[in-house]
Amino acid sequence: MRPQQRLQRTLIVPSIFVMLTACDFEMPPSGAPTSGDAIETLPMQGVHGQSPAASGGVPSVIMLSPAGASPEIEKTASLFTIDQFGLTFSPRYLLADKGDPITFTNSESDLSHNVRLRAFGDTIDVIDADANPGEQLVVQLLAAGGYDVICDMHPGMTAFIFVSEATHSVFAQTDGSFALDSVPVGTYTLQLWTAASGFQAPRSVEIGPGLTSINLEMSG
Ligand SMILES: [Cu+2]
To answer: Residue 15 sits in which domain range?
Structure first.
């Protein structure tokens, strides 16, 4: 058995911070998004609606943040893992907050992959890193928006990451329908992102009391 290759590399580019490590420390489980955890004392309301349908398999993203001066909300960074196994990225769609550490792993027994990450629709690599079995690549994305992820070695191995700066964010379904379960009553700035049109102009919305319905189908 060949000795485990030890890699320690730090890459800093304008909008991103990348650490490549090949260590075998125990990874935390990939957590659920924690949006809204900091404001549990206010009554939570449901928001649902309709946005443009997915384009090229990439769903719309709906983002809500409290209107006005952005409050100092204590947010715990969520830890996400995207594994490469069985010639598939898992999960294939990931919604993260700005700066959340995203760890790429390779669980294959003896199959190398790579991770090539680009801003959505762009042709410039943000990351192009080998991903051999046992290695980990930790990425913190600091620019909001969509990111394409591919493995060069296996056509069809793709993933999509969306990085949000909003306090409440959700992927729409393929048909464009969306739902957020727990949003405190209040005035919000809503922003829509679609694969076809990118970020749309922010708009003001009132949430609750009661179920709030929002139609974004005509946007963009
Ligand atoms: Cu691959």
So the answer is: 8-24+78-164
Residue 210: what pLDDT?
Answer: 87
Same domain, 181 and 192: yes
Task: Tell me, yes or no, whether 30 lies in a domain.
Answer: no
Cα 104 to middle of ligand 1, angstroms: 12
Same domain, 51 and 159: no
Q: Do 124 and 181 fall into the same domain?
A: no
C-alpha 19 – ligand 1 centre gap (Å): 20
CA 106–ligand 1 middle distance (angstroms):
9
For ligand 1, the distance from its centroid to the CA atom of residue 172, given in whole angstroms, is 27
Give the model confidence (pLDDT) of 155-205 as tens digits.
999 999 999 999 999 999 999 999 998 899 999 999 999 999 999 999 999
- Does one domain contain both 60 and 109? no
Q: How many domains does the chain have?
A: 2
Ligand 1 centroid to Cα of residue 70, in Å, is: 41
In this prediction, residue 1 carries a pLDDT of: 39
State the pLDDT at residue 105: 97
Residue spans of the chain under pLDDT 50 = 1-37, 39-40, 219-220
Residues 110 and 188 in one domain: no
pLDDT value at residue 208: 83
Q: Following DSSP, what letter does each residue of the chain receive, concatenated?
A: -PPPPP-EEEEEETTEEEEEE---PPPPPPPPP-TTTT--SSPEEEEEEE-PPPBTTBPPEEEEEESSSPP----PPP-EEEEEETTEEESSEEEEETT-EEEEEE--SS--EEEEEEETT--SEEEEEEE-TT-EEEEEE-S-EEEEEE-TTSTT-EEEEEEE-SSEEEEPPTTSEEEEEEEESEEEEEEEEETTTEEPPPEEEEE-SS-EEEE-TT--
